[in-house]
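Issue: copy button drops trailing tokens. Both records pasted manually instead:
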Amino acid sequence: MKMGKKIGALVAALAMSALLALALVGCGNSGSQENTDFMEKGDGEHLVCAVTGKLIKIAPAILADQLGYFEEEGCDVEFQTVALADAMASMSVNKLDIDLFGIVPACSYVSQGTPIYVFGGTILNGSEFISTTAFDRELKTAEDFRGLKIACSREESGQIYLKAYLQDNGLELGKDVEFEYVDNATTALEGLRSGQCDLFICNNAQGYTYSTTMDDIKVPAVPADITGDYPCCRQNCSDDAYHNKFQSLVDFEVALIRGYDYYLNNKEDVIKRMVDYSAQSPDYVEAALYGTDEYRNMMDLSPDPHTNEIVQYYKAMLSIGEIEGDPNAMDQYATSEVYKRALDRLVSQYPDNQTYQKLAADFDIYNS
């Protein structure tokens, strides 16, 4: 009987433990569900979005504003001109909702433990090489870069991904291939002409400007052909905007995707609008946004966040020592939740629209 009581007590204790475990699992699931409740809230909120100068790389957002798409989607957005560094700093303390630039600053802040959410795309593959016309080396593999000296700006996204690619493929940075940060394009051009550097990694369409106005400068290659796709400017938002204005972000994204559709299908009008907006020449705007028979533009204006590539880019920055921090931190902050809801709404409303159908078909490829 004594043994029976002990066994009975043990069985009862185990049963109670099992019940507690189930209760805890239930609480965990409930908590997880509660953690996503904010995604159904936050509509009708005022959004402040930073823009930098009159850059046309944010053409879908500019078009959405000019064509009234934000208003039609019930999105109350205010655009403010803010310097890139100031925009990210303001978002980090919830003084700004959105900016449309800077994957490098976003990764840097996340690595330091600051919640910056990357929720959409602005530009993919935005860098290109320029060289003197005397440069005759083919650039197709990592080995083709051995012995080269390359100038670049710290903020240029292509240089980060290229460094990681070369390192991953057996080249020692600083020894087999050298990179040097420069403050401006003038310094880089002088370096090319004097032989101090072989290549300059610059932003999309700078190569068009230099190669069409300078007889001794050309675009020999682009980083994306060697490394594969990489994110450039992204749509970033603050922690406050993501958790307290989520549905307003969805409305913003719906309007922006509509702007992207207009960009793809109304070339002549878009060029005219961007010329008026930026005061750039029609030839430059066409080359930058669409390319020409002589110039291949690399700037892909897709609004897809490409979360897979964002995570890879963050890890590339870690691997070359550009940042330090949790190697998995960006998994949480590279999010497709806003974009997917916006795209689903558009596919439902416009089932015959080829742009939306193509974006929907590509979604799982870039966001797994």
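Record 2 (pasted manually too):
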Amino acid sequence: MLIYYFVWGIVSLFAIIEVSIWQRAHPICQKIRGLGVWLIWSILIGLVCFKGAVGTDYHSYQHMFEKPSSINEDFVEPLFLLWMKVILVFTSSFPIFWMITGFLNISLKFYVIRYLSPFVSVSVLIYLVGLFFERDFDGIRQGISIGLSYWACVLYLQGQKWYKYIFIIICAGLFHYTSFLFMFIPVLGRVRLSEKWIYISLGLGLLCVVTGFDLLKLIFTIIGYDNYLYDKLYNYLRSEDYSRSVGLNIGLIFRIVILVLFLKFRALINMPEKKYNLLLNGFFFAIFISLIFNNIEILSHRLAYGFREFQIFIIPYLILAFKGQRNRLLVTAGICLYSLILLHRLLTTPHLVEFYYYKTIF
């Protein structure tokens, strides 16, 4: 387990360095930034591409890859199946499949982070303890899907033709169906929700958590149980792990605090309106989904996962709201501590501990 804390330490060090040399145009500072990004990218690539049977989903993907005839195509998205079949044309080695997928996955995330974040290392720090561990290090299907969705967000913010980012979103959705929610990014980028409606919505969501309101049961009562949606969710609904209540955990509380700070510091953050609206509305949507489906873990955690991880881009912008290098460094140190808490929480979760003992393919 120490290797994960070591990686966290490297990323934290470069996060503090990057913030401390921010706005310095000296060539040496630029080289340090570039070196930091390259080094962190290399470490994460190595950590993923050369790992052995580590993570909760590794053996499942290995079984799918080595015995594609055993796959239930109703539960695995078509583009991921096609991706496996393409790789199988060239090699039957699962570690090589994992290497290629991991390399593309993480490289795409770094490309997006460099475009959307003012501090790459700070964003990678948040990425490391959330999206990286849960999706790019483990559940790669949704990891690829989210990476493509974020790329679509970049294309949208760059003002590219609508059919370009819509095509990317369709591809993302065919890797993992939850990414079809990104079809709404043009709406999320244009609409500016008022603080009043955001707080009212959060209040209603918290009320759902406190009362244990079962929204999914209400939905199926209205539309019935004999349909594709229920069939898709059936295996999850009968699982104790996936259908349990989430409650107000530390991660959800932190995300609500981050959302409120992002609202309050708007005037202090130099960000284009469209970009701010997209990040704010997407992040708010994810929190609201987590609250109203709080009694069903799989929906609360995964349905809007891609939007939830907008915190990767939001948190570095909060640093800019503070004036003076000393204050920015203090905030960065707080973010490092926050990420360490999340990392420790992940690695000490009782039912996950055995899955994260690191071993290589060698």
